[in-house]
Design goal:
Number of strands: 0
Radius of gyration: 19 Å
Order of helices and strands: HHHHHHH
Mean pLDDT: 86
Number of domains: 2
Structural class: mainly alpha
Amino acid sequence: MSQTNKTDHEELARLREATSAMSEPARFAFIHSQRSTWPIRTLCRALGVSASGYYAWRGRPESQHSQEDRRLMEQIRRIYAAGMGAFGSPRVHAELQAQGVRVSRKRVARLMQEARLVGWSGRGPRPE
């Protein structure tokens, strides 16, 4: 194996490991962002998704649920910033309910986890 092929193989292995915890739509979005660097079929094979699935994802409109999640995430980020990073999902959920937004606590927790927004209890160092 030539040095170039070996480095490419190692890079694809790193990509596979880095994206192993991602959902399938997140992997498709990653493939879409890297399509100028790597061939799509190579990325699909490395990330364990089908090329036909990627092309189907690319052609379909964003779901209503995803649109709502995106809109809700904007509100969550505003509340989190207003609380100076101290609010966890229970407080963010309570603030959303006070604003009249009907959403489950688990959905707020999931969105905050995906965005890596962590509350701070006031003990120990602030999370970064």
